[in-house]
Write a structure and sequence with these properties.
Elements: E1 2-10, E2 23-29, H1 32-35, E3 45-50, E4 59-64, E5 82-88
C-alpha cells in the first residue's frame, strides 16, 4: 500500500460494467520527503479506481496489482491495476537525516 495525492480525474465514455458507480482519479505518488513537507525526490503519477468519493487534493492510500482486484472477488471480475482504499486525514513523517 502506498500514499498518493489526488491531482485530477479521468473522464471516459464507456466503462466496464462491473466498475459502474465509481470513477478513475489521477494520483501523484507521495514519498517520505513530500509527506514531511519537503520537495519530492520521486516523480510518479498513476490512474486508480475510486469508489470512496475522493476529491481533488485529498491524500489517499492505494493498493496496486492483483491486490487492487481482491476486494471485489469473487462477486465481480474487475480489470484494475490500482484501487483507492482509504482517505487519509493526517500523516506525520519524521525525517532523520543524520
Amino acid at each position: 500500500m502506498r500514499i498518493g495525492k489526488v491531482i485530477g480525474r479521468v473522464t471516459h465514455s464507456v466503462v466496464y460494467p462491473t466498475l459502474a458507480g465509481g470513477r478513475f482519479v489521477i494520483l501523484e505518488v507521495q514519498d517520505r520527503f513530500s509527506l514531511a513537507g519537503q520537495a519530492r525526490k520521486s516523480v510518479e503519477a498513476l490512474v486508480a479506481y475510486d469508489n470512496l468519493g475522493v476529491g481533488d487534493g485529498d491524500l489517499v492510500c492505494f493498493t496496486e496489482s492483483r491486490e487492487a482486484c481482491a476486494p471485489f472477488y469473487p462477486e465481480k471480475i474487475v480489470p484494475l491495476d490500482a484501487l483507492v482504499t482509504g482517505i487519509l486525514d493526517h500523516v506525520v513523517v519524521e525525517l532523520d537525516l543524520t
